[in-house]
Amino acid sequence: MSIIESNLDEKRSFSPSKDLKTNANFSNEDFLSLTKQFKNDRNKTWADLANSNILWDKSFSNVISGEAPFYKWFCDGKLNVSKNCVDRHISNSKSAIIYISENNEKKVLSYSDLYIYINKFSYALRELGLCCGDRVIIYMPTIPESIVAMLSCARLGLIHSVVFAGFSSNALRERIIDSRARAIITVNAFKRSGKIINSKEIVDEAIKVDCDFVDKVIIYENHTLLTNKKTRDVLWSEILPKDDKYIDPISMNSDALLFILYTSGSTGKPKGIMHASGGYLLNCIITNKWVFDLKDQDIFWCTADIGWITGHSYVVYGPLACGATILIYDGAPLFPHSSRFWEIIQENRVSVFYTAPTAIRTLMKVGENDPNNYNLESLRILGTVGEPINPKAWMWYYEKVGRNLCPIVDTWWQTETGANMIAPIPGINSLVPGTCTRPLPGIDAAIVDPDGKELTKPNQGGDLVIKQPWPSMLAGIWGNPDRYVKTYWSKYSSKYYVTGDTARYDEDGNIWIMGRSDDVVNVSGHRLGTMEIESALVSHDLVAEAAVVSYKHEIKGEAIHAFISLKNNSNNKIELADDLRGWVSLKIGSIAKPERISFSDSLPKTRSGKIMRRLLRNLARQEDITGDTSTLENESIIEQLKEIV
Ligand code: WT7
Q1: Quick one: pLDDT at residue 2?
Q2: What DSSP character marks residue 454?
């Protein structure tokens, strides 16, 4: 039995202010009473929450059904998620979306503007012949039209799959084929850091061969660039009706799929994580209310791209279902200058700000004192997500951005969990830099040893698992039920949902995430499967073998070190390394580019022919080499592997 050791020790603690204790949406009394209710009758408590937070077209009698682990939530209830997000707020004359472009153009859409727009676009989609259950790929940057596209799909019961606009045509193609999408919605082009990205060309390339099942490509002309139209292409502006239309939101079963979102796994191709309607929406709503303390007058800026789960749950579905005002920025954080974020917060009086540790570290590096030059008084809650935040970055965020006044909610969750799972509640928990604190009410998390036994003492690291199903849990992996069971449920004889993360408690019972237990790296808050990057590398003509591991990186959290053996020796390793970085960008996207590359005659293997990953990890992390190396055929390759290009 091997327990992972932990030696980190953080003593600073920050208690909620008096104001938060009295005014937060969720008080300590609420917490105690809800925790008690969950203990007494779990299902009834979820049912009560679902009834008080969601607008049901037909109420449910069944809270949880289905055969484990294929759970269905609120199964016989009917609802429409788009109606929950927009229709029920149109009588409040308030802004739904504040949009800022990279060139600092600003557009504001009220809830009724959004409602009118969604109805028109839903009409257009229906006229194209798309119907309930069809898959639609959305390959767009974070602009109001992509939100309109998502919510129009939801209105019609179309299953959307948003693909991050920074992904290459190869990665896009894989997702189009796996989901057998009938339509793709994209832009002609968009700007990032002043550079033009030609999305439409990338789509054309992605579906050039064997994609006849794609009936239509819809192009929103987001840029003056001329669109090169093919027969299957239609322009957004052509299909959008001139007059207002009303499209009845379809009453969907609560377990009907709302979307598929692809995420990396440790082996093979990306997994199409499926989320259903009612359960997903419930956890999105309650966590926005509890963790972000979202109130009517708040302006919520979550900097995530809509191509990630954070963009789904904390830009679109959660905040809009709560009737909040969201801010979206379609641009790079450092463009055109390093204080862009602070400027946006000041100009738009952002009150709730949610971003990733990697962004915090970058901003801290480029302008440690920059926040001092802006009026950030509107801020009241700060959040982070995506990876553990190091205490130094946490303190900077707290002192410089939050002026020692704003609680930082460090939220742990995953694409698969749909919404925050372990996170502080601002009016209740004391904060300690670096920990995501405690599970939210109704979330039954535990840390277990390799035998599945619960570890309850402080500083014993083990697998983080969830012991009971929860409403926003994934509904499975698209087209691959076996992989769903194998990846998430098989490790502890189907008893627990296995997160793939390792964690420990501290003396106060706070949970500290220690890292991943599988071959997944976390670069700038995004999960990447090492297998995928390795497959991309070996598909290059000159590469024989490749192994990818991660090492600690000051800004990105983790960065990628690729170890490569070549088919033939190359004279110019520097040029080849650059070429390989370009190749990975092309195959997956630039976030997957190896920061460091080492070349050797062969890769170190065990007797059974497995690459010695642990050894490579030791090398990449400049640690002493642990474990047995006696089976190495050629000791001298260790020296070669230490050379970094
Ligand atoms: C993985 C999930 C959830 C949206 C963003 C990423 C890591 C996430 C935290 C946190 C430490 C975190 C975990 C998790 N992670 N949040 N607050 N502290 N680690 O979504 O791509 O599904 O990745 O991100 O390793 O398993 P994702």
Answers
A1: 45
A2: B
User: pLDDT of 521-565, one tens digit each?
Assistant: 888 888 888 888 988 898 899 998 899 999 999 999 999 999 999
Q: Give per-residue pLDDT as tens, 27-73.
A: 999 999 999 999 999 999 999 999 999 999 999 999 999 999 999 99
Q: Which residue has the tokens 């799929």?
A: 257
Q: CA-CA distances (angstroms) from residue 574 to 205, 551, 561, 584?
A: 29, 21, 15, 16
- The two three-digit tokens of residue 603, written as one number: 């890769």
Count other Cβ atoms within 10 Å, centred on residue 245. Answer: 16
Length of the chain: 645
559: domain CATH number?
Answer: 3.30.300.30
First to last CA, the chain: 39
Beta carbons of 150 and 318 less than 8 angstroms apart: no
**Token couple for 458:** 């402080």
Average pLDDT over residues 433-441: 96
Nearest residue (CA) to ligand 1, atom 12: 387
Q: Is position 406 within any domain?
A: no
Mutate to test the pocket of ligand 1, among 312, 387, 447, 516 (most ligand atoms within 8 A of CB): 387
Q: Is residue 214 part of a domain?
A: no
pLDDT at 609 over 70: no
pLDDT band at 274 (very low <50, low <70, confident <90, very high): very high
Please, which pLDDT band fits residue 264 given cuts at 50, 70 and 90?
Answer: confident
Atom 8 in ligand 1: residue holding the nearest Cα: 386
* Residue 225 pLDDT greater than 90, yes or no: no
C-alpha 499 – ligand 1 centre gap (Å): 10
Structure tokens at 283: 């956890």
Q: Is the peptide bond before 69 cis (omega within 30 degrees of 0)?
A: yes
Do the domain assignments include residue 247?
Answer: no
Rg (CA), the chain: 24
Total domains in the chain come to 1
Residue 116 CB partners (closer than 8 Å, separation 6+): 244
Q: Tell me, what DSSP letter sits at residue 361?
A: H
- Residue 167 in any domain: the answer is no
Q: Is the dihedral of CA 11, 17, 18, 22 positive or negative?
A: negative
Q: What does DSSP assign to residue 400?
A: I
ω into 336 cis (within 30 of 0): yes
Instruction: State how beta strands 557-566 and 543-553 pair.
Output: antiparallel
Does residue 488 surpass a pLDDT of 70?
yes
CA of 412 to the centre of ligand 1 (A): 6
pTM, entire model: 0.91
CA atoms lying within 13 Å on the CB side of residue 540: 26
**In whole numbers, what is the pLDDT of the chain averaged over residues?**
93
Element (H, E) at 205: helix 199-206
The DSSP annotation for 180-249 comes to: T-SEEEEES-EEETTEEE-HHHHHHHHTSSS-TT--EEEEE--SSSPP---TTEEEHHHHS-SS----PP
* Residue with token string 């007059």: 243
Distance CA 495, CA 503 (A): 18
For 564-576, what is the mean pLDDT? Answer: 88
Where does the pLDDT of residue 169 fall: very low under 50, low under 70, confident under 90, or very high at 90 and above? very high
Are the C-beta atoms of 291 and 490 separated by less than 8 Å?
no
Q: Which of 10, 412, 438, 440 to mutate to test the pocket of ligand 1 (most atoms within 8 A of CB)?
A: 412
- Residue 20 burial by CB count (10 A; 0-12/13-18/19+): exposed, middle or buried? buried
Q: Which structural domain range is residue 605 located in?
A: 520-644
